[in-house]
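hey can u check if this looks right to u? its 152 residues, i copy pasted from the old doc so theres a chance i mangled smth
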Amino acid sequence: MGRFLAGVGSTLLLVAAGFFWWQGAAQRDTVDRPDAPPAALATEPLAMPPQADERSREQKRFDRYDKDRNQAISREEYLASRRKAFARLDLNHDGRLDFDEWAKKTTDKFARADADHSNALTRAEFLTTRVVRKTPVRRDCPPPRAVDGDEG
């Protein structure tokens, strides 16, 4: 309970110190420029960050779908991306997707892992199907420090 109260007290002291520091900084700005009234300080131009593109995300998305640029998205334009994805999966181009076509990536992965062609994966073969991370693991981190009372 004592640690909690000490933490709360120190937090309040830090907030109060920050408030007084902030007030002092505002007073110093006013003292440095006695001829400028406080209202004039608020109207000074601030350094603005560069402006982003005016087109919104949805406008850009609309433009990606509107292939003929007629400011309208037809049903064909709207479904075009799905048609391309379907065509990549429809290996025999019959306009129908059977299970093997739909699961091609997984069946290929299984076939590559099944080294002995037994149609079953052993533990060693299954280990080859693990997901490989795309982001590299950071190697420059220092090893973890031992904490007092922590054994291991």
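The radius of gyration is 32 Å.
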